[in-house]
Write a structure and sequence with these properties.
By secondary structure, the chain is α/β, with parallel strands linked by helices. The chain is built from 8 helices and 12 strands. 38% of the residues lie in helices and 20% in strands. Helix 3 packs parallel to helix 5 and helix 6 runs antiparallel to helix 7. Keywords: Cell inner membrane, Cell membrane, Manganese, Membrane, Metal-binding.
Length: 291
């Protein structure tokens, strides 16, 4: 709880300060969606891609936004306090949306489970829920939850969730170094990379197992689909007659799930969107020069 009370935006909330943005808001037209889902932002960690998320928040708007858990990483904050300005900016942008009339529903995950005790409460227009039912424009009922609820079922596979993380990258780098040294010593190639590859295969299995478990659980609850986060893997597909949606994360993937006004769903890959925008701007600049 200590780490949370130290978060600087809480003081600002009480004082009712306006727009204390460090990074100024982007100008220009915003793309409008009926609904936006984002999760696994992990504010309070170095891995969080806050500037990319700020660019996303300044480029889009919606009637409703769901924050599907692991927004603030309380686990990490407790160990080591890390809170740069950009992370404050994310919180403020979300609070500003709520103030402007966007419905903001916050469903805490396992890394921000300390907020679960506030379930049913409303903070500055942000509704805190354990889970939610979202009805799409085309009338489908979607169960929205973080996804750690299935960890007990997934327990046997749980340790694999960490593979594919920084640990894996480190292992691959280590593998190169270890084998360069071994080669110099005249030793044969060692199978660290083979071990790593085996683990990646397991990580893929973990993801598809998680998706199956979530979809089957949703089917028993009589909904048409499910939206979750937790495993940092954006996806949208039908599993056993259920629409499975995962909004991904803002650590590696930088993805969001959106619903268009006709109920059509889409996963936005924000790094690609930024690259496309830069290319368009460059083309416009060069055509202006030519004219
Ligand atoms: Mn999680």
């Amino acid at each position: 709880m200590n780490a949370i009370t130290r978060l600087p935006f809480l003081g600002n909330l009480e004082q009712g300060a306006d727009d204390p943005f460090h990074i100024p808001e982007r100008e220009g037209e915003r793309r409008r969606y009926r609904t936006i889902w984002i999760s696994d932002i992990h504010l309070g960690t170095r891995g969080c891609n806050a500037t990319m998320l700020i660019d996303f928040l300044d480029s889009v708007d919606s009637e409703t936004i769901y924050l599907v858990g692991d927004i603030i990483d309380g686990w990490r904050l407790k160990k080591r306090f890390y809170w740069p300005q950009a992370h404050n900016d994310v919180v403020w942008r979300i609070m500003k949306r709520a103030k402007r009339g966007t419905r903001v529903v916050y469903i805490p995950g396992n890394h921000d489970e300390m907020f679960r005790q506030f379930t049913g409460m409303n903070f500055g227009g942000v509704e805190i829920r354990r889970k939610a039912i979202h009805v799409t424009a085309d009338g489908r009922k979607l169960l929205v939850l973080h996804g750690d609820e299935f960890d007990t079922i997934m327990l046997a596979h749980r340790w694999l969730a960490f593979v594919g993380d920084a640990a894996y990258t480190l292992m691959m780098r280590l593998n190169v170094v270890v084998n360069a040294v071994r080669q110099r010593m005249g030793l044969p190639y060692w199978s660290l990379s083979k071990m790593a590859k085996h683990k990646v295969k397991n990580a893929v299995e973990f993801i598809s197992k998680f998706e199956d478990v979530v979809a089957h659980e949703a089917a028993t609850r009589g909904v048409d689909g499910v939206v979750c986060g937790h495993i940092h893997n954006a996806e949208m597909r039908q599993i056993a007659g259920v629409d499975y949606y995962n909004d991904g994360d803002w650590v590696e993937g930088c993805t969001a799930l959106v619903e268009h006004f006709d109920g059509r769903m889409e996963v936005l890959h924000w790094a690609d969107e930024i690259a496309a925008r830069a290319a368009k701007e460059a083309a416009r600049d060069s055509s202006r020069l030519a004219a």
